[in-house]
Amino acid sequence: MTNGGKSTLSKSLHQRIPNSCLIAQDSYFKDYSVVPVDSNGFKQYDMLDALHMDTMMCEVDSWRRDPLSFMRQRGLYPEHTTSSADEMVYVLIVEGFLIFNHRPLNELFYKRYFMEIPYDVCKTRRSLRVYTPPDPPGYFDGHVWPMYLKNRQEMESMVSGIVFLDGLKPKEELLAAVYKDVCQEIEKLREKDFYLFPL
């Protein structure tokens, strides 16, 4: 959900988890000129057609093929957290508002987390952020919130195993809970080569 705290939590996890990479869906928006417009004249940013999902999938696939090279291309260098290089674990954190609605991407995830906040908090947070281009009058109620409800309903009909997080809780508390959960899963599955943890 928009302004739920996904980016903040994802960046904090990336900083805490050794050998992790972060891919953010917001980096794959199409140019303003090609984003569809609805009957009310609102740009349809809250739908998969507004995103270069093919490019995002290529990035994810690149990490899956060779996480070490992926890290190095981004100026990141692995931390040797075990005595054996064969036991090194690489984690990909995928953050975005429609990552569960894109089936080819969703099918890759090992763990799924969903940040949620109430309507009034979401609207207030959205109004305090600066967007380029800026939200037109009535955009939140006329497009953003209805699309969130539609996308969430679609997500819940096709995805199971989501851990819902209360976005009103303190950032430190959310980080501690998810970090602990991810670390426990890494320990259980250390023999595997990679994991994807979306937010």
TrEMBL record:
GO MF annotation: an example: nicotinate riboside kinase activity
Q: Which reaction does it catalyse?
A: beta-D-ribosylnicotinate + ATP = nicotinate beta-D-ribonucleotide + ADP + H(+); beta-nicotinamide D-riboside + ATP = beta-nicotinamide D-ribonucleotide + ADP + H(+)
Annotated Gene Ontology cellular components are: cytosol
Gene Ontology BP term (one)? pyridine nucleotide biosynthetic process
Q: Which family does it belong to?
A: Belongs to the uridine kinase family. NRK subfamily.
Q: Which InterPro entries does this entry report, sorted A to Z?
A: P-loop_NTPase (IPR027417)
Could you tell me the keywords of this UniProt record? ATP-binding, Kinase, Magnesium, Metal-binding, Nucleotide-binding, Pyridine nucleotide biosynthesis, Transferase
* Pathway the protein takes part in: Cofactor biosynthesis; NAD(+) biosynthesis
Signal peptide feature range: none
Coiled-coil residues = none
Highest taxon of the source? Eukaryota
Give the source species.
Answer: Etheostoma spectabile (orangethroat darter)
Q: What is this protein called?
A: Nicotinamide riboside kinase 1
**Gene3D superfamilies tied to this protein:** P-loop containing nucleotide triphosphate hydrolases (3.40.50.300)
